[in-house]
Automatic annotation (TrEMBL):
The protein's name: Phage repressor protein C, contains Cro/C1-type HTH and peptisase s24 domains
GO MF annotations, alphabetized: DNA binding
Originating species: Sinomicrobium oceani
Residue ranges of the TM segments: none
Keyword terms: DNA-binding, Transcription, Transcription regulation
UniProt cross-references to SUPFAM superfamilies, sorted A to Z: lambda repressor-like DNA-binding domains, LexA/Signal peptidase
Gene3D superfamilies xrefs: lambda repressor-like DNA-binding domains, Umud Fragment, subunit A
Taxonomic placement: Bacteria, Pseudomonadati, Bacteroidota, Flavobacteriia, Flavobacteriales
Sequence ranges assigned to domain HTH cro/C1-type in this UniProt record: 12-65
CDD domains in UniProt: HTH_XRE, S24_LexA-like
Stretch forming the signal peptide: none
Pfam family, one: HTH_3
Length: 251
C-alpha cells in the first residue's frame, strides 16, 4: 500500500520516524487532533497548517516535502532562536528571570506564555556588562558539565539570535522541544551535537528544528566554597595510604 502513497505522505512519515516520535507526540507538536495515523495511511491530506508547523518547528522545506526540491532544511544557521517572551521590571527595563530545576521541566512548553513567567522569580543586575541584551538564569541539573559546573549551581546566560552565532568551546543553555540542557554546541550541517564536559556523558544529537532558544553562559552563581567531594575522597585515600605505611614501619 505504501507504494501508492504520495511523496509528501512518505516523507511525512519518514520525518516522524527520524525524529523518533510516536504518531500521538508528532501530532501534538504539529497541532493535529488525535494522531498522524490518518495522514500516514493517506486518508487525510497534509494541510497548510501542518506544512507551516513542520517549517516552524523543524525547519523542513515545504518544497522538499512535496518532492520539488532535494534541500530538506531551509538554512538552519539563520533560524531564529531568540527568546519568545521577555519580562520587565517596574521601571520598564528587562530583568533576569530565574528558571530553577523544577521550572525547567515546563519551560519549553511555556515559551510564549507571559503569565507563566510571572510565577518565576526575577532580579536586576545593575552592571554594564548585563545591559543591551536579554539575560536569563538557569539552575544546573546533574553532573554532565562537571567540573566546570556542579549540580544545583546557577548560570546567567545571554540570549543568542541564530545558530550561526554559536562559538566553539563556549557553554550554552539549549532549550529543546521537551527539555532544557546545558552543553557545548557543535554545528555540522543539518546536525547539532550537544556535548558534555564530563566524558561519562555521551553527546546528544539533534537538529535545528528541535531547538527553541539558545543562551550563552556568561557567568555562574555558586554556593560551593569547599573543594568538590571527589577531591576530598582523593585526599582521604592519600591519608589512609600514608597511615598504612606508618603502621607497616612501626610493626
Amino acid at each position: 500500500m505504501s507504494k501508492n502513497l504520495n511523496t509528501e505522505i512518505k516523507r511525512f512519515k519518514m520525518l516522524r520516524q527520524e525524529f523518533d516520535m510516536t504518531q500521538q507526540a508528532f501530532a501534538e507538536v504539529l497541532g493535529i487532533k488525535n494522531s498522524t495515523a490518518d495522514i500516514e495511511r493517506g486518508k487525510t491530506r497534509i494541510s497548510g497548517e501542518v506544512v507551516a508547523a513542520l517549517l516552524e518547528h523543524f525547519g523542513i522545506n515545504p518544497l522538499w516535502l512535496f518532492g520539488k526540491s532535494e534541500q530538506k532544511h531551509l538554512r538552519p544557521e539563520t533560524k531564529s532562536v531568540l527568546p519568545k517572551t521577555v519580562t520587565l521590571n517596574s521601571s520598564g527595563n528587562e530583568n533576569i528571570v530565574l528558571v530553577n530545576i523544577k521550572a525547567s521541566a515546563g519551560y519549553p512548553h511555556n515559551l510564549q506564555d507571559p503569565e507563566w513567567y510571572e510565577t518565576l522569580p526575577a532580579f536586576d543586575l545593575p552592571l554594564p556588562e548585563y545591559r543591551n541584551a536579554s539575560y536569563r538564569g538557569f539552575q544546573v541539573e546533574g553532573n554532565s558539565m562537571y567540573p566546570v559546573l556542579h549540580s544545583g549551581e546557577w548560570v546567567i546566560a545571554r540570549a543568542e539570535e541564530k545558530l550561526s552565532d554559536i562559538k566553539p568551546g563556549r557553554i550554552y543553555v539549549v532549550v529543546l522541544a521537551d527539555t532544557v540542557v546545558v552543553k557545548k554546541i557543535a554545528v555540522a550541517g543539518e546536525k547539532i551535537r550537544l556535548i558534555s564536559i564530563n566524558p561519562e556523558y555521551p553527546a546528544i544529537e539533534t537538529h535545528p528544528g528541535e531547538i527553541r532558544e539558545i543562551w550563552q553562559v556568561v557567568s555562574k552563581i555558586s554556593g560551593q566554597l569547599a573543594p568538590p567531594q571527589d577531591n576530598l575522597g582523593a585526599w582521604a585515600d592519600e591519608i589512609r595510604s600514608e597511615l598504612k605505611e606508618i603502621r607497616e614501619k612501626l610493626s
